[in-house]
């Protein structure tokens, strides 16, 4: 399942200058703990993957200690409720705001597909599959070094 949501890229830290930014949220029941988020138009998009629990917690309070921080807040002339996602790659920081109602709608759909607490029941990776993927990533088949 997926949701296409138009957000705002905050060009300055004060939030006074923004630019529209298409954001695509993807969720797969076969990877039930993760949400894949694609920021930007297809020709220059950037993909981030983070925990569905992080997104859900960020709907209510500021959360996240690492590269992704999410929190609710007000934005715009009519003080609409938004969700802020701050991304901190090694090259800098990006702040994106999204309409809370749309993000909540997406999360509700993921919760119907895989209710929170049942994620493990939806995992399809076996130990041999995992070992094969690990070998591909490390390039050291059978090595314990």
In short:
The chain has 145 residues and is α+β, with helices and mostly antiparallel strands. The protein has helices at 52-58, 100-113, 127-138, and strands at 2-10, 18-26, 34-39, 46-51, 68-75, 80-87, 94-99. It is built from three helices and seven strands; from the N terminus they run ββββαβββαα.
Describe the structure in your own words:
This protein has helices at 52-58, 100-113, 127-138; strands at residues 2-10, 18-26, 34-39, 46-51, 68-75, 80-87, 94-99. A 7-stranded antiparallel beta sheet has the order 4-3-2-1-7-6-5, with helices on one face. A hairpin with a 4-residue loop joins strand 5 (68-75) and strand 6 (80-87). The longest helix is centred in the C-terminal third of the chain and has 14 residues, at 100-113. The protein contains 3 helices and 7 strands; from the N terminus they run ββββαβββαα. It is an alpha+beta fold and 145 residues long.
Low-confidence stretches: none
Helix-and-strand structural type: alpha+beta
**Order of helical and strand elements:** EEEEHEEEHH
What percentage of the residues does DSSP assign to strands (E)?
Answer: 35-45%
Number of helices: 3
How are strands sequenced across the largest beta sheet? 4-3-2-1-7-6-5
Q: How would you classify the quaternary structure?
A: single chain
Q: Report the end-to-end length measured between terminal Cα atoms.
A: 40 Å
Radius of gyration: 17 Å
Taking the sheet with the most strands, its summary is: 7 strands, antiparallel
Helix content: 10-25%
Strand tally, please? Answer: 7
């Amino acid at each position: 399942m997926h949701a296409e949501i138009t957000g705002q890229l905050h060009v300055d830290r004060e939030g006074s200058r923004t630019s529209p930014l298409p954001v695509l949220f993807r969720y797969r029941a076969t990877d039930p703990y993760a949400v894949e988020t694609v920021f930007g138009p297809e020709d220059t998009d950037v993909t981030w993957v983070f925990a569905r629990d992080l997104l859900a917690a960020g709907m209510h309070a500021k959360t996240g200690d690492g590269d992704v921080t999410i929190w609710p807040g007000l934005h715009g002339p009519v003080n609409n409720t938004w969700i802020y996602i701050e991304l901190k790659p090694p090259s800098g920081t990006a702040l994106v705001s999204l309409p809370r109602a749309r993000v909540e709608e997406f999360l509700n759909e993921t919760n119907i597909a895989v209710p929170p607490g049942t994620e493990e029941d939806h995992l399809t990776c076996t130990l041999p599959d995992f070992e094969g993927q690990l070998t591909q990533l490390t390039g050291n088949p059978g090595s314990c070094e």
